[in-house]
Structure formats: C-alpha cells, structure tokens
Amino acid sequence: MSEKSISKMLFSNQEKVELALVDDIRAEMAQANKGAMKGIDMIEAAKRPLETSLRDNKGLLKKLAKTKKSAIELGALDIVKELQKYESQVDENIKSIDKILASI
Fold first, then answer.
1. Cα angle for residues 58, 56, 38 (degrees, 5° grid)
2. pTM given for the model
C-alpha cells in the first residue's frame, strides 16, 4: 500500500468517526429539545388555571371590600373581622399567584 492510499483510508475512517459524532450530537439535541418542549407544554398548561385563579381572586377581593364596607355601615364588627381574615387570605393568594406567573 502506498502512503497516499493509506492516507486516503485513514482520512476516510476519520470522516466516518466525525460523522458518527455529529449523528450522536443530533440525537442528543433532539432528546434535549424534546425535554424542553415537554417542560414548556407543562408550564403553559399550568399557567391557564393560575391566570383563572388570579382573575377569580381579584374579583373576590373586590366583593369582599364591598361586603366589608356594608358590614361596617351596619356596625357588624364580628362580620368585619371575619371578612378581614378572608381579605388577607385572598390578598396572599394574589401575591403568590402573581409571583409564580412572573417567573413563568
């Protein structure tokens, strides 16, 4: 065998190894992208109920404020105290949901 034919054979083998490595990288990229897409889909699916809950909690907070105002006008202090607890809980819900949605 001549040096030229050995060189061609070695070069050909090197190309095959390099192409195999590229194929491996392609397969790994496909797997990595598959995982990312699955994660993104899961986040999007979780986002919708959070947005609905946020809207509902904001509506509830307005309703609590109106009801509390009426209870104050009527002098129903026990009801006012109860409504204040609910307001605090709903306000915390809103803050938590806002924080989660901001991170998505």
1. 115
2. 0.65
